[in-house]
Write a structure and sequence with these properties.
The complex is a heterodimer of chains A (224) and B (245). Chain A has 224 residues and is mostly helical. Chain A is built from 10 helices and no strands. Classes of the chains: A mainly alpha (224), B alpha/beta (245).
Chain lengths: 224, 245
């Protein structure tokens, strides 16, 4: 079967499973909202402080939301050993992985679409005039986050303490991505409201490297 | 080599040659230097006590596990016409200990998903026919998690047969089936045997479907203990084992 068709068939399955229960989306959105709202009340930042420290907080919220979201990607397949059924189907292993990445990308994007306006209101950071460029940064950062997260979800699926193991494994790998995403967002929220091209190139490079690596390792990762 | 086209054209079963395969799980040796050749169209009863290595052998055959040593080759029609692994993948059906079904999807959604992954034509008709055959038409839109054990097992068997496999691997397929389900399974296996599909079924000796077997193989401690061979009669051995159990 054509890899693209297989990917979209499996992507539709992932969406159907999630939208039927909405377990992941609800949990991650509520958790991230709590982080954003609590930090606002705890520090009560001025608009200048919010523009400086807000991006860090925003990306920490995205990181935790992402690690919660990718965790069950492969673990969910263990219930009835459905990964075995997928491995026996005449489809490329990367189709299984890429469908999960696309689904996680969609779910995390939905969470971000809720979190960013809430952040803007609570921290008094105007997004007028920078929204388009902010979306570019969010997309590049989120692609890197879900690509790496889905790969580590496959690696940690069989571990007994995978909920704990996944963020521990993930954070060191995502640190460069988070630094780049936070730095770009800070420059965007600054007075000049400019995108830092160096960090944007870094984010693109990170995404390309991890997507290629996941494609190369897909046979090994699908073995579970 | 590469007789994938021949396999389709002849609509034959797949033959398998295990050459001194061994499978280790740490210190545990599940299969020890097992050599065996199964011809296309054979119906093999795979027997043995718990831990004899039956499931490991089936998982290696399904390419879900690699042997630690030795090799597995697949062929069509004659041993000289090797079939590539990629072709074998789409021609193999498995009913395992687990259901290989999504609990949160309905019976119809599960079958439709796998029909699409196997790139089958007339997906809707195939799924409807499969649901009708396994007696689950009236529950087509119900989620699998609401099914009884027997209904789940029937759906798992329907899923494994959806793409008309040329090699069918069954690991305790009768588990959870009631009298009616067992009769349906027997009829299904009889039809598959008539179609020339290669079947390897691991089960206990009392299972009546084993009367269809053309060959019986007994594993013990990961080794081949008894084999009635491709031309031998498995019935005396099956009767002996039934009397013992």
């Amino acid at each position: 079967m054509n890899a693209l068709r297989a990917t979209f068939t499996l992507f539709a399955k992932e969406c159907r499973l999630e939208f039927r229960t909405r377990e992941l989306l609800t949990a991650t959105v509520v958790f991230s909202l709590i982080i954003i709202v609590f930090f606002n009340f705890a520090f009560d930042p001025t608009p200048a402080e919010a523009r400086r420290f807000g991006p860090g907080l925003l990306w920490i919220a995205f990181f935790f939301a992402g690690s919660l979201m990718v965790n069950p990607s492969f673990a969910r397949e263990q219930t009835n050993d459905t990964l075995d059924a997928l491995r026996m189907a005449p489809i490329p292993s990367f189709a299984v992985l890429s469908a999960k990445m696309l689904a996680n990308l969609l779910f995390l994007s939905i969470a971000e679409a809720i979190l960013v306006p809430v952040f803007s209101v609570f921290y008094n950071v105007s997004l007028v005039g920078i929204l388009g460029r902010l979306i570019v940064v969010l997309v590049l950062g989120t692609v890197g986050l879900v690509t790496t997260g889905t790969v580590f979800s496959a690696i940690s699926a069989h571990a007994r303490m995978r909920e704990l193991l996944l963020p521990v494994l993930l954070l060191p790998f995502l640190t460069p991505l988070l630094i780049a995403a936070v730095s770009t967002t800070i420059s965007l929220f600054g007075d000049a409201q400019e995108l830092d091209r160096t960090w944007i190139v870094f984010l693109i490079g990170f995404d390309v490297v991890f997507l290629t690596t996941s494609w190369l390792l897909s046979d090994f990762l699908a073995e579970g | 080599m590469a007789s994938a086209a021949a396999l389709s054209a002849a609509n034959t079963g797949l033959g398998i040659r295990f050459d001194r395969i061994e499978r280790r799980f740490g210190a545990l040796v599940a299969l020890r230097s097992l050599s065996l050749e199964i011809a296309p169209g054979e119906f093999v009863a795979l027997l043995g006590h718990n831990g004899a290595g039956k499931t490991t052998l089936l998982r290696i055959t399904a390419q879900l596990m690699r042997p630690s040593r030795g090799s597995v080759r697949f062929f069509a029609a004659s041993a000289a016409r090797e079939v590539p692994f990629t072709t074998v993948k789409g021609r193999t059906g498995l009913v395992g200990h687990s259901l290989l079904l999504y609990d949160e999807l309905s019976a119809e959604e599960n079958l439709t998903l796998f029909a699409r992954l196997y790139a089958l034509d007339k997906v809707g008709t195939r799924v409807t026919n499969a649901l009708e055959a396994c007696g689950l038409s009236s529950r087509a839109t119900s989620q699998v998690r609401t099914f009884s054990r027997g209904m789940r097992q029937r759906l798992a068997i329907a899923r494994a047969l959806l793409h008309s496999p040329r090699l069918l691997l069954l690991d305790e397929p009768a588990a959870g089936l009631d009298r009616q389900g067992l009769e349906w399974l027997g009829a299904m296996l009889e039809r598959l045997r008539g179609d020339g599909c290669t079947v390897i079924m691991s089960t206990h000796a009392r299972n009546e479907s084993l009367d269809l077997a053309t060959r019986a193989i007994v594993l013990a401690g990961g080794r081949l203990q008894q084999d009635t061979g491709a031309v031998g009669d498995p019935r005396p051995l099956l009767q002996e084992l039934r009397a013992e159990s």
